[in-house]
Amino acid sequence: MSDLDQLTQSLARNLKRWRGERGFTLDALAARSGVSRGMIIQIEQARTNPSVGTTVKLADALGISIATLLDHEPGPQVRLVPPERAVRMWSTDAGSHTLLLVGTERRGPLELWAWRLMPGEGSTSDPHPGGTVELLHVTAGRLTLVVDGTPHAMPAGTSATFEANVPHTYRNDGSEVVEMTMAVAVPPAR
Length: 190
Prior knowledge:
- This protein is an alpha+beta fold.
- The protein is 27% helix and 33% strand.
């Protein structure tokens, strides 16, 4: 089974499990997430590989991390994630990519990400649920962080935090590769 097949199967199994644990019908999850009922059915039956945006919307609507939605394995208090188990959520031909390094459900989902943005590339995120906070630390290059339409220059060594319930974009407007680490804290589902 390929990595993509394993990811599709994990997503199908976990989406159905977490939807059941939350007591959400297909229609309720569709309304909460903005993802169509038909798409949710296809995902739960492992018949499609949804976009990163769709996966984020579903995780947000369920009040869980993407890491949990993609591969939830209850285990010991210490969970080591070797590099080959990090989940590449998106990438471009030029070499930009994100890696979901690790996540937890304690006190609401918390995720740790490694980002790489090639010159001229970027990624835009829809608003997350109210109370979601992102923390960034740029380790190489110069990131342009755009939060609710306002750009912020972040050279290497700069850190930032912001409420992520508004549209936000990460851009590399420079000529050097941007590398950053990001943590995302989502409030627990109510």
